[in-house]
């Protein structure tokens, strides 16, 4: 894999979290008396000042619901969210103040922008909602310039249909930046863009972190994006984080079979891709034991049985991983291997990737 414009720096691991989820749960009522769907089923996650965390996983694993809960758009059914050391309150006034400091960047700029509003109005909307008392024109121009649209005055009176896809995404980012937030949550920020533009937007996010000290949670199914932009990665499956750690550590030496399967399908991955059987379980009927065991290639191959953990995989829950920055994995087999490093197994070798530039 190759980086975009620059390699992200590493924030001080000792810094207290800016945003934190603690034992977070979000469940939705089932239809006609069906069990509640546990979209987020116990998550601890910390994001520190100046840190970029990538939240990765397949569609339906709960990534977007977790992001919405962190933004206060979905109230949790259990656990709590804290920001800058204080619990998130859900009154209208508290959420309005919170959203000035934490902004959302959506994946589809065409759907995010009102086609009847000019670029100026789109970016100024946040200032007007929050009763900005300064020079609105200067603030809009500064936000557009920071987002890479220069000279900004040239874009003030344009409409979204007059812009390219990359320019529209920069307008969305400018709309988030205009309030000078401390953290942005970017939900698949480059998924709808051409490959030629993706690198530019990722380089922009890295530059904003360097220049403004901005923190970010980047929600994505693209492990290549996580490699290029993140300091730390959290892999999510069926409502829970199953592996987390520094991006180089997780993506070059994945320990959880699910992470290994995700990485195996990348074009540059060595060996044959791992094809998972079946569909992810219904979140209203989360299986006992490891929630991945029904699709796990290690359990199916007999490796877990040879390591003596097959029954644990099927029956014993692994609990919630800590939100701290150290490497962690929710896998009986991976933990058994770690506790017996001298033993040789016939397990698949850990994926080797080229060094991060």
Q: What would a concise description of this structure say?
A:
By secondary structure, the protein is α/β, with parallel strands linked by helices. Helix content is 33%, strand content 18%.
Fold and architecture overview:
There is one protein chain. The protein is an alpha/beta fold. It folds into two domains: 19-28 and 38-235, P-loop containing nucleotide triphosphate hydrolases (Rossmann fold, 3-Layer(aba) Sandwich); 251-339, no CATH class. Helix content is 33%, strand content 18%. The chain contains 14 helices and eleven strands. The chain has helices at residues 63-70, 92-101, 109-112, 119-129, 136-146, 165-177, 195-212, 223-229, 247-252, 257-264, 297-301, 303-306, 310-315, 332-339; strands at 19-28, 37-47, 52-56, 78-83, 86-87, 102-105, 183-187, 215-220, 232-237, 240-246, 328-329. The strands form two sheets. Strands 6-7-8-3-9-10-11 form a seven-stranded mixed β-sheet, sandwiched between helices. Strands 2-1-4-5 form a four-stranded antiparallel β-sheet, with helices on one face. β7 (183-187), α7 and β8 form a beta-alpha-beta unit. The chain is globular and about 65 Å long. The termini are close together. Residues 1-12 and 343-357 have low confidence and may be disordered.
């Amino acid at each position: 894999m190759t980086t975009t414009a620059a390699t992200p720096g590493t924030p001080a691991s000792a810094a207290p979290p800016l945003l934190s989820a603690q034992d977070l749960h979000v469940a939705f009522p089932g239809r006609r008396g069906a069990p509640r769907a546990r979209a987020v089923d116990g998550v601890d996650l910390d994001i520190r000042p100046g840190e970029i965390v990538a939240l990765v996983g397949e569609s339906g694993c709960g990534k977007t619901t977790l992001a919405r809960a962190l933004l206060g758009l979905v109230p949790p059914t259990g656990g709590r969210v804290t920001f800058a050391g204080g619990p998130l309150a859900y009154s209208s006034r508290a959420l309005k103040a919170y959203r000035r400091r934490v902004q959302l960047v959506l994946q589809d700029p065409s759907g995010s922008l009102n086609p009847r509003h000019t670029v100026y109005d789109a970016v100024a909307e946040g200032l007007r909602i929050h009763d900005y008392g300064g020079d609105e024109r200067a603030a809009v121009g500064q936000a557009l310039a920071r987002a890479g649209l220069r000279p900004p005055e040239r874009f003030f009176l344009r409409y979204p249909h007059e812009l390219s896809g990359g320019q529209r995404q920069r307008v969305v980012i400018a709309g988030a930046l205009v309030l000078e937030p401390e953290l942005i949550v970017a939900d698949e920020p480059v998924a709808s863009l051409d490959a030629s533009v993706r690198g530019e937007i990722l380089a922009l996010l890295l530059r904003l972190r360097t220049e403004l000290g901005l923190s970010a949670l980047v929600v994505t199914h693209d492990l290549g994006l996580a490699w290029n932009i993140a300091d730390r990665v959290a892999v999510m499956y069926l409502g829970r984080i199953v592996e987390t750690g520094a991006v180089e550590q997780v993506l070059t030496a994945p320990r959880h079979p699910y992470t290994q399967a995700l990485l195996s399908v990348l074009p540059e991955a060595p060996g044959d891709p791992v094809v998972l059987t079946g569909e992810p379980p219904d979140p209203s009927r989360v299986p006992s034991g490891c929630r991945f065991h029904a699709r796990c290639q290690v359990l199916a191959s007999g490796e877990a049985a040879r390591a003596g953990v097959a029954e644990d995989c099927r029956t014993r829950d692994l609990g919630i991983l800590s939100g701290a920055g150290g490497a962690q994995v929710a896998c009986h087999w991976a933990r058994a291997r770690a506790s017996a490093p001298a033993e040789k197994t016939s397990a698949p070798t850990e994926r080797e990737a080229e060094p991060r530039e």
